[in-house]
Amino acid sequence: MGKRRKAREAAIQYHFWRDLQHGQGPERIDDFWEFCPATPRVRGFAQPLIEGMVVHLPEIDERIRRYCENYEFHRIAAVDRNVLRLAIYEMLYRDDIPPVVSINEAIELAKTFGGAESGRFVNGILDRVKNDLTRPLREAIPKQSSDATK
C-alpha cells in the first residue's frame, strides 16, 4: 500500500476519533500518532489533510448536507461521513490532487472500512460534488513558482 493511501487512512482515523469525542481531537497530535503509528513520509502527507479538514470542516459538512437530500447528516455512518469529508476537502482545497483521484481513493476506502453499500453511497455524493467543480477533473493544478509571479 502506498504512502498516500496510508495517509488518507490516518486522516480518516483521526476524524473518526474526533467524531467519537464529539468534535474534540486528541490534546496533542502526537497522542494520535502514538495510537496510529506512521512513517515520517506518511505523516508528512497526512498532517496537512488532517489540519485542512479541521479548518474547513463547517464548509465540508455543509456540502455533505446539501447533497444528502434523503439522509439526515447525523445518520450517515461515521466511516462514510469521514471518507466524504476527506474526499471533499481534497476536491475543494487541494489543487495538487486531481478530483478523480480523490473520488477513486474515497470509494476504495469506503469499500474497505464501510458497510456493504458504502462505496456506492460515497460515489453518488462525490459525483454530485464533482459536477460543481470548475477545475480540471483529471489533472493537478501545478503550483506557480515565485519566478512566474515576478
Describe the structure.
By secondary structure, the chain is mainly alpha-helical. It has a single domain (3-131), classed as N-utilizing Substance Protein B Homolog, Chain A. The chain is 65% helix and 0% strand. The radius of gyration is 15 Å and the shape is globular. The model is unreliable at 145-150 (pLDDT under 50).
Supply database-style keywords.
150 residues; mainly alpha; N-utilizing Substance Protein B Homolog, Chain A; 7 helices
SSE blueprint:
Elements: H1 3-20, H2 29-35, H3 40-55, H4 57-67, H5 78-93, H6 99-113, H7 118-131
Helix pairs in contact: 1-3, 1-5, 3-5, 4-5, 5-6, 5-7, 6-7
User: Which percent band covers the strand fraction?
Assistant: under 5%
Please summarize the sheet with the most strands: none
Distance between the termini: 41 Å
Question: What does the radius of gyration come to?
Answer: 15 Å
Total beta-strand segments: 0
The CATH H-level superfamily is NusB-like
The CATH topology turns out to be N-utilizing Substance Protein B Homolog, Chain A
The share of residues in helices is 55-70%
Structural class per helix/strand content? mainly alpha
Q: Judging by the overall fold, what is the CATH architecture?
A: Orthogonal Bundle
Mean pLDDT figure:
90
DSSP helical segment count: 7
- SSE string: HHHHHHH
User: What is the approximate shape?
Assistant: globular
Total count of domains: 1
**Unreliable sequence segments:** 145-150
CATH C-level: Mainly Alpha
